[in-house]
């Protein structure tokens, strides 16, 4: 047996009496719920002890409630996953079934646990079974009745109603938490908080909770669907009782088959440091799961959600698996035709403001003396060593950059001349970098964007959703080198040996790649070329996207589906609705910006290196990645995608996803600060 009391730190709290009452409520709650898989309380008593703070003027003594409980020899499921990794499905279901049965008893007593999570589920050493502990925030509930509860929630495991002081609560509240627990046992992944999920769902019409099968392809279809159903954001779309959810899992009232649960190796009982949890990454084929429907009342309040949705990103790089150009015939090498295969030596360079400067390359070939008879041939004068060939070539792109007016009509087009580096690996695999000249720019949302966002979503929602793009601030970015297009499927497969994409096509952007996948790709590419490839910082990405502009899009004040791939069911500014392609398009399909970069708006979101920060207060001003502070469990994505509204495609728009997230709207682009070419 063990005796549980409030510790000395809590004993000094000014609200100790209230905490003591809560502690007594826990003892009473557990005593009402007798079950093999619920920790057993033998009795409780009050003891008079000296006050831990001698300077206390109220009393020299303290009445301390003590709870005599059974001692469970074993470990908790949270520690088990941290130390051994994700559990086999049969093992996880074995424990979840037992805890679900225990919670059914709790609910039958009119109680909610409210803090179900892996750390609150112990596993006995002998026999191997789960025990639910820690009823410290358990509260009574009446089905279908709105009641007031004190705030208490564990991020990732608490459903949305637990963050509200007054809300309807029921067994479905604990269903969410137990479904989230099973998610973690099967994936080892960190879970997004339900408030964050709701925020992104309302803002982008996308749930950032990815199905567990995306992380662990060994998860069965039935279990995958049951987890997503149990974790539906709106309570009315979850199973209303624990028994109902266990039936969805296939572990309801049926007896557990013998011999299906592999033995668990328990850690040593001695306490050990708790390493940080990290997602278990398994590249898995996409298995579409029907999204949880949004409550009708929510949709009616926010009909603007019909526009389109949340995101991931794609980092863009021009790596190609066969000779490829933006227009013209494949394999063309004429130096004046403007293709990416060109080698122009006398071209007009389109600049950010549209002016052109003629650039002529001088002929530095040394003069070779005429041949002569050996006996009369004078001693040749020493000739200078020829300079090594430049790794860069200047070309004019076949596609021109464009500007649009406030209605989205193209009013100007101009040629773009860029310095590129091409690495040819043979077998038609090529990789192209564009030189991005250094400079200073204003990063973040402009006043005109603020007014348009207020018009689109209302002032309150604009304040809640778009202040992460503020404050607007100046950043100086050194020269760097960026992929002309997002990493294609052909290139990704050539480097990584696999193609996880949903929308197949060698010249389409690779998608369904996590931040970790993009980092691994950069490392492989660096090892192959000797150049330090990496993901861009947020500042580098926005600077490259803007290409000297200050408008919401590098095209101008608005955007249309004639010049970018996004959900054309919604609009930005005065532009008309357009095409909703419902898939990615080949890289280089749309006009470039003035730096020669393609598809910086739409197609796929692009991963950046930075940690997520809620705003730009304290952000670096030198163009470096912001990896100090913030939320390292969330990474930044930029650019919007084929399945998102045009607002999400703005140069200033930011989004955040867990680094293990994979979706068919996320890709990436790579950069090099100082390539050793």
**Oligomeric state of the chains present here:** single chain
Structural class assignment: alpha+beta
User: Sheet bearing the most strands, described?
Assistant: 6 strands, antiparallel
- Percent of residues in helices: 10-25%
> Hey, roughly how much beta strand do the residues contain?
15-25%
- Residue-averaged pLDDT: 78
First-to-last CA distance: 69 Å
Unreliable runs, pLDDT <50, ≥5 residues? 145-151, 254-263, 266-376
Number of helices: 15
- Work out the number of β strands: 26
The global form is elongated
Folded structure, characterized:
- The chain is an alpha+beta fold.
- Helices cover 23% and strands 18% of the residues.
- It contains 15 helices and 26 strands.
- The strands form nine sheets. Strands 11, 14, 17, 18, 21 and 26 form a six-stranded antiparallel beta sheet that branches. Strands 24-23-22-25 form a four-stranded mixed beta sheet. The protein has a three-stranded antiparallel beta sheet with strand order 1-3-2, with helices on one face.
- Helix 4 (89-108) runs antiparallel to helix 5 (171-187) and helix 5 crosses helix 8 (221-230).
- The radius of gyration is 31 Å and the shape is elongated.
- It starts with a strand and ends in a 5-residue tail after the last strand.
Layout of strands and helices, then pairs:
Layout (H helix, E strand, L loop, with lengths): L1 E3 L3 H4 L4 H16 L9 E10 L10 E9 L4 E3 H8 L4 H20 L2 E2 L8 E4 L5 E3 L6 E2 L5 E3 L17 E3 L2 H17 L6 H11 L7 H4 L5 H10 L11 H8 L46 H6 L16 E3 L25 E5 L5 E5 L32 E4 L4 E4 L5 E5 L2 E8 L5 E7 L2 E5 L3 H11 L1 H7 L7 E5 L2 E4 L5 H8 L18 H15 L8 H9 L58 E8 L18 E8 L16 E3 L8 E2 L3 E2 L5
Parallel strand pairs: 22-25
Antiparallel strand pairs: 1-3, 2-3, 4-6, 5-8, 6-7, 9-10, 11-18, 12-13, 14-17, 15-16, 17-18, 18-21, 19-20, 21-26, 22-23, 23-24
Helix pairs in contact: 4-5, 4-9, 5-8, 11-12
């Amino acid at each position: 047996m063990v005796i549980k009391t409030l510790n000395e730190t809590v004993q000094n709290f000014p609200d100790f009496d209230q905490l003591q009452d809560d502690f007594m409520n826990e003892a009473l709650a557990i005593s009402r719920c007798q079950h093999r898989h619920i920790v057993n309380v033998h009795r409780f008593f009050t003891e008079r002890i000296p006050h831990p703070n001698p300077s206390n003027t109220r009393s020299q003594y303290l009445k301390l409630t003590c709870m005599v409980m059974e001692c469970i020899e074993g470990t908790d499921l949270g520690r088990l996953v941290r130390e051994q990794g994700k559990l086999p499905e049969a093992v996880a279901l074995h424990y979840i079934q037992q805890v679900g049965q225990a919670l059914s008893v709790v609910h039958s007593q009119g109680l909610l646990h409210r803090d179900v999570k892996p750390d609150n589920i112990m596993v006995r050493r002998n026999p191997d079974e789960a025990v639910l502990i820690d009823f410290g925030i358990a509260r009574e509930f009446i089905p279908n009745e709105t009641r007031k509860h004190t705030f208490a929630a564990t991020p990732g495991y608490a459903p949305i109603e637990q963050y509200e002081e007054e809300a309807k609560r029921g067994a479905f509240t604990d269903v969410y938490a137990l479904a989230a627990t099973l998610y973690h046992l099967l994936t080892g992944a960190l879970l997004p908080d339900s408030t964050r999920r709701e925020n992104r769902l309302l803002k982008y019409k996308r749930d950032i909770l990815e199905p567990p099968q995306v992380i662990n392809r060994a998860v069965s279809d039935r279990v995958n669907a049951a987890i997503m159903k149990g974790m539906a954001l709106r309570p009315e779309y979850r199973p209303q009782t624990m028994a109902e959810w266990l039936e969805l899992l296939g572990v309801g009232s049926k007896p557990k088959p013998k011999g299906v649960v592999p033995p668990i190796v328990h850690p040593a009982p001695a306490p050990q440091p708790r390493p940080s949890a990290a997602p278990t990454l398994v590249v898995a084929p996409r298995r579409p799961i029907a999204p949880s429907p949004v409550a009708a009342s929510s949709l009616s309040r926010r009909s603007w959600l019909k526009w389109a949705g949340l995101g991931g990103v794609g980092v863009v790089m021009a790596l190609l698996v066969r000779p490829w150009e933006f227009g013209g015939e494949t394999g063309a090498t004429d130096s004046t035709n403007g293709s990416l295969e060109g080698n122009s030596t006398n071209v007009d360079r389109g600049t950010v403001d549209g002016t052109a400067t003629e650039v002529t390359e001088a002929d530095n070939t040394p003069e070779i003396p005429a041949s002569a008879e050996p006996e009369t041939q004078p001693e040749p004068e020493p000739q200078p060593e020829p300079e090594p060939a430049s790794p860069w070539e200047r070309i004019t792109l076949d596609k021109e950059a464009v500007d649009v007016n406030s209605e989205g009509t193209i009013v100007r087009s101009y040629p773009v001349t860029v310095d590129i580096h091409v690495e040819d690996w043979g077998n038609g695999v090529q990789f192209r970098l564009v030189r991005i000249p250094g400079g200073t720019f204003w990063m973040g949302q402009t006043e005109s964007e603020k007014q348009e966002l207020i018009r689109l979503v209302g002032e309150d929602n604009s304040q809640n959703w778009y202040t992460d793009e503020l404050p607007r601030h100046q950043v100086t970015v050194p020269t760097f080198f960026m992929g002309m297009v997002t990493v294609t499927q052909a290139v990704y497969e050539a480097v990584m040996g696999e193609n996880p994409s949903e929308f197949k096509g060698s010249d389409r952007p690779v998608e369904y790649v996590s931040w970790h996948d993009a980092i691994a790709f950069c490392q492989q590419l660096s090892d192959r070329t000797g150049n330090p490839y990496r993901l861009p910082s947020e500042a580098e990405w926005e600077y490259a996207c803007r290409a000297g502009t200050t408008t919401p899009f590098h095209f101008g004040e608005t955007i249309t589906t004639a010049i970018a791939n996004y959900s054309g069911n919604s609009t930005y500014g005065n532009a008309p609705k357009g095409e909703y392609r419902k898939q990615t398009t080949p890289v280089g399909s749309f006009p470039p910006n003035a730096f020669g970069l393609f598809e910086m708006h739409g197609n796929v979101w692009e991963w950046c290196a930075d940690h997520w920060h809620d705003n730009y207060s304290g952000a670096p001003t030198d163009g470096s990645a912001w990896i100090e502070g913030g939320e390292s469990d969330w990474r930044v994505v930029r650019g919007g995608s084929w399945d998102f509204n045009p607002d999400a495609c703005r140069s200033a728009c930011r989004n955040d996803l867990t680094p293990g997230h994979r979706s068919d709207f996320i890709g990436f682009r790579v950069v090099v600060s100082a390539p050793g070419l």
